[in-house]
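Provenance

Sequences were taken from public entries as deposited. Structures were produced by running a predictor on each sequence independently, with no templates supplied. The record for YggT family protein from Lacticaseibacillus rhamnosus is shown for reference.
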Amino acid sequence: MFNFLYALFRVGDWAIYLYMIMVFIYILISWFPNAQGTAIDRFLDRWVDPFLSIFRRIIPAIGGLDLSPILAFFVLSLIKFGWSRLFLILVQIIG
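Predicted structure for YggT family protein:
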């Protein structure tokens, strides 16, 4: 049972980390006008923009600078931490 939980934890942890990388690449692409509209940009736009739009409603752009990714990274870090704590709690319960 522990091996299954550990595998599930690793998959979830990896997925959160991969999503954080996707957000970072999305931010980098936004700084290069020639990269916008490419296949990778459209892919990231489809996966990352809905998540960032939640935070854009909370934090408006200041002087044309979008600060929503900062809050998004913070929330993703909290989710990653919570995922780790959940795993530790389950391991203690199962013992």
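The chain has a mean pLDDT of 94.
The radius of gyration is 17 Å.
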